């Protein structure tokens, strides 16, 4: 078999490498192994993992926007939405700038939100002394999911970004979780 060699390749940006890791469910070790293999063949395609880790950290809300308690955590919904929009705009910057008419002043962003509870998990290193009501074997999670970024211009809708897998956890943004058993009352309160 004949080997094909080519000096032409396009290097991944840290954001593109992070998307590759997320989209293909690569572990850190798998990514580093692929990166080493490419380097060994003279193709330094992938940025160092620590650079990707820094980009990944920009996807998380800062601590000042989280309200953490013993049995729950809440993030500012406004901040999570803004962070999500900023990240999506960063990814779609070229498309939006190229096709956004100058006279448009409003961009529509559609979300869905949801609540899910699950129970029966293995108890993991949590000690809720004298409070059998609480344990990490039961969790209620509230989330938002971005669905679409679009504009309406001259009576026509233009979509800049669309979530084609709205039931996937890929774009699911947690707003709140509680270590409590899901009940009808808790669902309404959450």
From TrEMBL:
Question: What name does UniProt use for this protein?
Answer: Uncharacterized protein
């Amino acid at each position: 078999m004949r080997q094909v060699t080519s000096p032409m390749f396009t290097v991944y940006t840290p954001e593109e490498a992070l998307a590759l890791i997320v989209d293909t469910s690569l572990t850190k070790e798998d990514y580093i192994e692929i990166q080493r293999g490419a380097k060994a063949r003279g193709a330094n395609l992938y940025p160092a993992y620590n650079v990707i880790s820094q980009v990944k950290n920009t996807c998380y809300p800062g601590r000042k926007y989280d309200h953490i308690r013993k049995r729950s955590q809440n993030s500012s919904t406004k901040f999570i939405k803004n962070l999500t929009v900023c990240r999506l705009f960063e990814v779609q910057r070229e498309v939006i700038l190229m096709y956004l008419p100058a006279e448009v002043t409003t961009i529509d962003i559609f979300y869905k939100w949801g609540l899910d509870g699950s129970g029966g998990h293995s108890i993991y290193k949590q000690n809720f002394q004298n409070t059998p009501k609480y344990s990490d074997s039961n969790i209620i999670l509230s989330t938002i999911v971005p669905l679409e970024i679009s504009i309406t211009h001259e009576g026509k809708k233009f979509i800049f970004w669309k979530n084609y897998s709205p039931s996937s956890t890929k774009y699911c943004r947690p707003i709140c979780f509680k270590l409590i058993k899901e009940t009808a009352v808790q669902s309404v309160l959450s």
